[in-house]
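Notes for week 9. Today we move from apo structures to complexes. The key idea is that a small molecule is not decoration. When we ask for a structure prediction with flavin-adenine dinucleotide present, the ligand SMILES becomes part of the input, just like the chain. The input block below holds both the sequence and the ligand string. Read it once before you look at the output, and try to guess where the molecule might sit.
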Amino acid sequence: MILTYIEQTGGKINAASFEALTLARQLAEPTNAPLHAIAIGEASDELKRRLGVFGVNTLHLAQHDAFVEYAPDAYAASIVEIARANNASAILATGSERGNEILARVAAKMNLPFAANVTDVQSGDDFIVTRLRWGGSLFEQAKLHGTTKILSVAPNAIPSQPVVTNSFVPLTHSFVPQLSEYDLRVRVTQRIEGERGKISLGEARVVVGGGRGVGSAEGFQKLEELANLLGGAVGGSRAVTSLGWRAHADQIGQTGNRIQPELYIACGVSGAIQHMIGAKASKHILAVNTDPEAPIMFKADYAVIGDLHQVIPAISAEIKKRRG
Ligand SMILES: Cc1cc2nc3c(=O)[nH]c(=O)nc-3n(C[C@H](O)[C@H](O)[C@H](O)COP(=O)(O)OP(=O)(O)OC[C@H]3O[C@@H](n4cnc5c(N)ncnc54)[C@H](O)[C@@H]3O)c2cc1C
């Protein structure tokens, strides 16, 4: 059988799970392998109906008191339990942050390789997979081996396709997974709401980003002032989120937010590839950096070579002066 993890957050189904299910069905078809799905918690009638339309024979529902909140190891343990009990030949999920996090843990528990963000598969004893690397900047072809192939599907790479004929009513199998204390050591314990009314990085028309060159958490006040004047948002590089100067939610890059402003003002940011993956959709980039050889200088439309602690307040002062 082939098993697909269906992602649900607060009862909302991640529609990209159906893309993973479409690939699972394509892999199942040559051998007529049964198509199973697994979800955590409850399944609405709507979910069951949609799974049937996608050709799912059996839906496994993992139910446990601990599942009121997200717990990636426990989710992975539930998937492994079903995969082992049914001799799964492949396990799929969508390549969302959660999908990848859970399948990485599934692979570790089963001591098998995992291919993340797959866009195409040629199946055989080994799978030849094409997958996105470096935040989508390149495609890689790789051989995926193992008795159970574990892969996540890059979102928007494979269109969801319901079965044309013979839709099923999936059999529902609820179970309580065997969890150890270890499986519950990583879990959500608290949720903090973001500031209301704050412009989000993903939507901001102007982003003022700070890197290690800002020097401290307090140094960001100058960037905040400029962002306020321009009606924009403040972000940062991974260096500054790792140093605790900004929250991770403010990070721009491969492992942070993707921004697409009209103007990105990058202050004291060197322009590492992982940072630029998150900033490449910016229409214009203004770099402020003391180093004329910093990589960002070669990607910026405009550059000021100078100390951001002088340049940024000077820009803010000029804006205030012009506005009277
Ligand atoms: C798997 C992986 C994922 C990653 N994901 C991300 C990610 O999502 N986002 C991200 O940002 N990084 C990411 N990184 C880290 C990335 O490789 C860089 O290490 C990081 O972006 C560097 O941050 P920075 O530019 O702030 O610091 P630095 O590289 O140290 O650059 C600081 C810059 O500030 C300049 N400067 C210093 N003082 C001043 C001053 N007074 N005025 C003006 N300029 C000054 C310096 O000339 C320098 O160019 C990732 C790395 C890995 C391996």
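The two ends are 70 Å apart (CA to CA).
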